[in-house]
Amino acid sequence: MREAQFLARGTPVGPVTLDVGLGQRSARVYEDARDASIVAMLAAGIVKANAGSVLIDEYDPRVQPVHCKRVVAFVPHDPLPLDVPGVESYIRYRAALWGIDPTGAWAHAKLLLERLDGVHEAFAYPLAGALIAAPKLLVLDRPQPAYAERILAAAGPRAIFSTHTSDAAAQRFETRARSVRLGVVPT
Amino acid sequence: MIPESWRAIATTRLLAERRTIAYAFAAAVVVAFVQPSGLAAPLFFCGLLGVAVALTQGPGRHRHLDLCEESAPLYGRELARAKAIAPCAVAIFASLAYWGSQSLAGFPASPLSFALALAAVIATTMVALSATLRTGSARLLYLALACATSAIAFALAFYAHSAIGEVAFCLLVALIALRQYGESLARYDPV
């Protein structure tokens, strides 16, 4: 992400510059939840930058959104609503969206959910649903710091980018994490 | 053959909207017993139900489903077709409920009358879907267009006595609306 800015709908966000290599972890702290959420969605290719550039595995989300979304998984901050019919149905739904074999996805999800033992279902299911597609990059929007160890164990060696609103939370995910004041490019 | 992703999106959204389906079904039955004869009532009332159900597909009501679908590797046009299935299915259920209730009330409508109403209801629902991604005056404009679709379809069927013209008009409007919805979804930022 180079000087990426989101200028639509309310207060502008950015410029944001960051680089997450294969297998690396990066945690960034932002002043408010909206900024953190938008930066996470920019990194996942869900929101398109109005200025600057975002490249996900050499693909530009503005031009090749589907290619980007095949290599990145996004886990939202909000917990999964409790009216979801069941974990297996939910995993099969996620598998269908990604065009994955549902039987294999469910077997994979069961392994992931074992690693996420102790994490509340409302947070564990979306993470398992995101990881069944075996993404190269996992983007976490303000993940729960209490579950950091479990989340990192489930994610394995893949690249992780997470956004946070407090330094303490960020440091649970990446020990070198630091605050970034938007508008200032970190050195 | 319907792709698996479309089936998954449609069934998940229909499950999430099961209460809305029940309300739409009940409302169609009640109104059909109150006004069992004619083409105008099923066409306009079920069209309004279609608009209401389409608006429930907007961002915010099922935030987690929205984010799952928007982060999935699907093109805007694929997502639009899949997301359009649920409100159209509800509109079809409501139209069938209305048609069945008309018969039970002793005023059975002909299959042609049902087909004309259904074509208008689906086209109206499709136009209303584009309103879900807009705000302010643009949203009102799309809602007005949805209402105008029902009115033109009724005029073609009732005053111009052109069943083929009505169906052709509804088909054209539905296709354009679906394409427009797909374009809007591809550009939409869920912030």
Can you characterise this structure?
The complex is a heterodimer of chains A (187) and B (191). Chain A has a domain at 2-80 and 136-179: Rossmann fold (3-Layer(aba) Sandwich), CATH 3.40.50. In chain A, the strands form 2 sheets. Chain A has a 5-stranded parallel beta sheet with strand order 5-6-7-3-8, sandwiched between helices. In chain A, strands 2-1-4 form a 3-stranded antiparallel beta sheet, with helices on one face. With 187 residues, chain A is α/β, with parallel strands linked by helices. Chain A has 7 helices and 8 strands; from the N terminus they run E-E-E-H-E-H-E-H-H-H-E-H-E-H-E. Helices cover 37% and strands 18% of the residues of chain A. By secondary structure, chain B is mainly alpha-helical. Chain B has one domain (4-187). Helices cover 81% and strands 0% of the residues of chain B. In chain B, helix 3 runs parallel beside helix 6, helix 5 (76-104) packs antiparallel against helix 8 and helix 6 (111-131) runs parallel beside helix 8 (163-187). The relative contact order of chain B is 0.16.
Task: List descriptors.
heterodimer, A: 187 residues, alpha/beta, Rossmann fold, five-stranded parallel sheet, three-stranded antiparallel sheet, 8 strands, globular, disordered C terminus, B: 191 residues, mainly alpha, 8 helices
In short:
Chain A has 187 residues and is of the alpha/beta class.
Q: What string, H for helix and E for strand, traces the elements of chain A in order?
A: EEEHEHEHHHEHEHE
Taken from the alpha-carbon principal axes, the silhouette of chain A is globular
The percent range for helix content of chain B is: over 70%
Instruction: Round the mean pLDDT of chain A to the nearest integer and report it.
Output: 87
Q: Which pair of chains forms the biggest interface, and how many residues does each contribute? A: A-B, 36 and 25 residues
Specify the overall morphology of chain B: globular
Percent of residues in β-strands of chain B: under 5%
Output the radius of gyration of chain B.
Answer: 16 Å
Number of strands of chain A: 8
Q: What is the CATH homology-level superfamily of the domain at 2-80 and 136-179 in chain A?
A: P-loop containing nucleotide triphosphate hydrolases
Overall strand count of chain B: 0
Order of helices and strands of chain B: HHHHHHHH
Class from helix and strand fractions of chain B: mainly alpha
Largest β sheet strand count, sense and barrel closure of chain A: 5 strands, parallel
Low-confidence stretches of chain A: 183-187
Roughly how many Å apart are the termini of chain B? Answer: 34 Å
Q: Sketch the major β-sheet of chain B.
A: none
CATH class of the domain at 2-80 and 136-179 in chain A: Alpha Beta
Q: Please state how the strands of the largest beta sheet of chain A are arranged side by side.
A: 5-6-7-3-8
